[in-house]
Specification:
single chain, alpha/beta, 250 residues, 5-stranded parallel β-sheet, 9 helices
C-alpha cells in the first residue's frame, strides 16, 4: 500500500519549514523521491517567509482531521523566520521563543489527532551566517542594505534548543540542523547560499538526517512494502502475471 508521508515547512519544497529551502536550487524534492518513490506518496507543503504563527492558520485547511488517509509520518521544519529579530528589517516575521515552542506543540497535537500512530519529526532551524547575510544584502541593495543583522546565529540557536527540548519532552525524534551543520569546517559557504537559505549541499544534510531517523523505524525504504512489482519481477512476454500477483485491483 502507498504510505503517504508529509513535510510541513515554510516553503513549498517542504511544508513545515520556512523559506530556508529555495525551489530554484533545492535538491530536496528529488532526494525525497529517491529511493522510496514507488513506496510512498510524499506531500510537500511550504510557504516562503512563513513562521509558526502564520502556519497555524493553514493547519486545519491543509491537514483536515477527517482525511481518509492521514500521513504515516510528518516532518516539521520551522524556526528561521520565527527567530527574526525585533527592531530589524524582518521583525514582522518574529515570533517570541515561548510562542514558537507552543506553536510547534499545537502542530504536533494536530497531527497526532489526525493519526495517533503518526511519526512526527522536528527539524530545528539551520545556523545563520551573519557575514553572509550582510554580503547578500549589499549585493542586492547596495548602500540601502541593512546596517544591523536581521537574524543572528546565537538567537537561532536558542530556537533550535527549544525545538529539541520539545521533541525530548514529547518523546519525538528531532534533527538538530543548527548543531549538525556547524560541525563541518566552512559550513557558512558550504551549506548556506546567502547566510540563511540552504545550498544543495545543505539540502543534502537535511535529507541524510531525516532518512537516518526514518531508517531507525519501520519507515525505512527497505522495510516498506511496495504497491507495484519490481521491474525485475515482470515477465516481458506475460507482464500481467506480476501485476495480478501484487496488484489485486488490476
Amino acid at each position: 500500500m502507498f504510505l503517504p508521508t508529509l513535510s510541513f515547512s515554510t516553503k513549498s519544497d517542504l511544508f513545515i519549514h520556512q523559506r530556508v529551502i529555495q525551489r530554484r536550487q533545492s535538491s530536496l524534492p528529488f532526494l525525497f523521491h529517491s529511493p522510496p518513490a514507488t513506496i510512498v506518496d510524499i506531500l510537500n507543503r511550504g510557504y516562503g517567509g512563513y513562521n509558526t504563527r502564520w502556519a497555524l492558520f493553514l493547519l486545519h485547511h491543509l491537514f483536515p482531521l477527517d482525511a481518509p488517509t492521514p500521513p504515516v509520518a510528518a516532518t516539521i521544519f520551522f524556526g528561521a523566520n520565527d527567530a527574526a529579530l525585533l527592531g530589524r528589517t524582518s521583525e514582522r516575521q518574529h515570533v517570541p521563543l515561548e510562542e514558537y515552542k507552543e506553536n510547534l506543540r499545537k502542530m504536533i497535537q494536530h497531527f497526532k489527532k489526525c493519526s495517533p500512530s503518526m511519526l512526527v519529526l522536528l527539524i530545528t532551524p539551520p545556523p545563520i551566517d551573519e557575514a553572509g547575510r550582510f554580503e547578500y544584502a549589499r549585493s542586492q541593495y547596495g548602500d540601502k542594505a541593512m546596517q544591523l543583522p536581521e537574524r543572528t546565529n546565537e538567537v537561532s540557536g536558542e530556537y533550535a534548543k527549544q525545538c529539541v527540548e520539545l521533541a525530548k519532552e514529547l518523546g519525538l525524534p528531532s534533527v538538530n540542523l543548527w548543531s549538525k551543520m556547524q560541525e563541518t569546517e566552512g559550513w557558512q559557504r558550504k551549506f548556506l547560499s546567502d547566510g540563511l537559505h540552504l545550498t544543495p549541499e545543505g539540502n543534502a544534510i537535511v535529507y541524510q538526517e531525516v532518512v537516518k531517523v526514518f531508517n531507525e523505524t519501520s519507515l525505512s525504504a527497505t522495510k516498506m512494502p511496495s504497491d507495484v512489482p519490481h521491474h525485475s519481477k515482470i515477465d516481458g512476454k506475460a507482464p500481467e502475471k506480476a501485476f495480478q500477483l501484487q496488484c489485486s485491483a488490476i
